[in-house]
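Milestone M4 deliverable, item 7.
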Amino acid sequence: MGMQSVAVACGALTLCLALTTATNPGFVVRITQAGLDYAQQQGIAILEKELAQLKLPNISGKSGELHYSLSRLHIPSFCLPHSQITPISNVGLQVSISNASVELNGDCWVKFLFIKGPGSFDLKVENISIKFILRLGSDTSGKPTISTSDCSARASKVGLHFSGKLAWFYNIFKKGNKSLLQKHLETMVCDNVAKSVHNELQTYIWTLPVTARIDDKIGINYTLVAPPRTTVQSLDADLKGEFYSLAHRSPVPFSPLPLAFPSDHERMVYFGASSYFFNTAGIAYHEAGALVFEITEAMIPKDVEFKLNTSVFSAFIPQLEEKYPNMPMKFRLSTPTAPFLTIGEGGISFQPIMDVQAYAILPNSSLAPLFLLSLTGNVSAVINVRSGRIVGSLDVGRIRLSLKDSAVGTFQVHFVQSIMNYLTSSVLLPHLNARLDEGFPLPLLDRIQLSNILVRFHQNFLLLGADVRFQPRG
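Output delivered:
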C-alpha cells in the first residue's frame, strides 16, 4: 500500500524508540533535522510512484431511491508538492502534506426509479491536505512499535465530469456525487495510512536489531531504555548499549554515565557509544573465556629467524637448559580481570593487564609450566565505521613485565623484554586487529547505508556521525 512509503522512509531514520525504564543509556542515536528532511524527500518520491499503482476498492451504496456503484477506479496521477515531518515533544512525528492533488477515473452505474444505466467519470481533487501523527513506542521485549493517530484529510477543490448516455442524469446529482467521492477519498486516505503503518511499517521497524549476535560467544543488547526525546532540531533515542555473554548473562557491576551529547547537526544521524558500551564488551569477552590467547612457533612469521624454544631463553635462564634442553615452547596469555578503557577528547586508551604463562612442550606433547609473567602496557585505539559496523585497530606502546612465579629459578625480566615486545606486536596484535576489523554492528534498520563518516571523541563517549541512504526494494 502506497501510503506506507512516507512513514517507512521516516521510520528508517527515526525509529529507535522507547522502553519505559528510566536509566542512563550506554548508546544513543540522534536523528537530526537533516535526516528527517532526507526521509521526507525519499518517502514522498516513493509515495507518488506507488499511488499511481494503487488499486482502489469498488464503492456502492444508496441514498433514498438512488442506488449507485463505482468500479474500475484508477488513479492516473497523484502529486504531493509540499510535505513536512516535524518532531513533536513526547509524542512522535507529525507528517503534514499540503497542496496535494489527485486525478481519479472509473466506471459508474446508477438506478433511480425507472432510470438506470452505466457511465464513466473523471474526478480531479486539488488543495488536499493530509496530516497524521506517527506515535513511537515499544513492546514488552523492547522492540520498537509504531501507530498512527489524529489523521485528517481535507480537500477544498473538487472537479467532476461524467461521460456516457446518462451523463445528463448524473449531472443532476453532480453536487452530491462530488461530496460523496470527496468523503470517500478523505476516509480512504486515513484508513489506508493506519492500515499500512500497522501491517507494513511495523514489520519493517522490527528489522531494528534490539539484540545483535556477534559470534558464538557474545551478543549486544540494543533495546531501548527511555522514550524518544524530541527537540526542535532532532530526535534522540536511548539504547541499553551493552555487550553480554551468550552462555552466562550476568549484571554489569557499574552503570553508564550521563552522555553530554553535543549539538552537532552536520550529519543526518549520530551514534554515541559510551565507555560503558565498550567496557561491557571487555567484561563479556572475559566472562566468556575469549580473552585467552596462545602463541606457538607456528604463529611466528616464516621470514623471521626466531625459534620459540628453550634454547633461546636458556642464555638468561640457565635452569631451562638443564631441565628442558632444546624443547619447543608455548605462551598462554590471559586476562586476570576484564580490561577497562577510558574515552576522552584525545581518544580511547587503556592499560590491560595480562598473565603470560610460559610452557615447555614435552616430547609426549604435555606441558611443563616454566614461568609466569605479568604484562601491561599503554594501548590506544583507532575507530571507524564500515558497512554499518564499528571497526577498529589497536596500537601498543612499550610493554612492562614483572615476574609473578617461576619453576626454573628467578631471572631478570628485562632479558625477555625484547622477545615479548616482538611476540606482542608481531603475533598477538595482528590477531586482535583482525578480529576488530570484522567489527560490531550498529543498530540500523534494514536497507540503511551510511556514508560521509565522522569520528569524534568526547568525555566518556565516542561520537560517530554519518549521512544516510535509504534503498527501497527494487
